[in-house]
Amino acid sequence: MNDKKLLMLFVRNPELGKVKTRLAASVGPEEALAIYMHLLQHTKQVTQDLAVDKLVYYSNEVKQQDMWPNEKYQKQVQPSGDLGDKMEAAFAHAFENGYASVVIIGSDCHQLTQEIIERAFKALETHEVVIGPALDGGYYLLGMNKLYTELFRNKRWSTEHIFPATIHDIEKLHLSHVVLPELSDVDYIEDLGEDFWGEEKT
């Protein structure tokens, strides 16, 4: 039985003025970059000890010597196209490389935990799709055990329609699925909870 598992992380290269632009409108580009770096560190913290293969997909260039240790994370540049094109190509590549369970996350969810990601992979042992809804109508996690291209096509990305549209496709295809707890992405200043910085910043 093939039990190869892959976690794909879609991240932006942390460059001033190019990350968290909606947030930057409220706090400025420097603070937005600091917040994004904090989100990246959180994402590394909750993924680095997972007992699965891990692949970081960068937005525009691979950094070999950075916060993502090469011994724990494979590294590639995201495929071209819109977000749906990128994710579809990434999933297709993973299944072509022999993975049986593939999960994708972004780097915007400060509430994400290692346990939730482990639950996602566990769900794929008995279900075809797993999805983690975000409060803004998108999703913070998507996993599947074969490529379902319909989930990536004809979507209005970065809108509140993404999660309901994806669930509609999942049900239309009669796929068994698990819905994870609803979490909040960090896109606006209102999304920064009181515990966002933890002990790092007061």
From TrEMBL:
InterPro entries: Nucleotide-diphossugar_trans (IPR029044), Trfase_1_rSAM/seldom-assoc (IPR018641). Gene3D superfamilies: Spore Coat Polysaccharide Biosynthesis Protein SpsA, Chain A. This is TIGR04282 family arsenosugar biosynthesis glycosyltransferase.
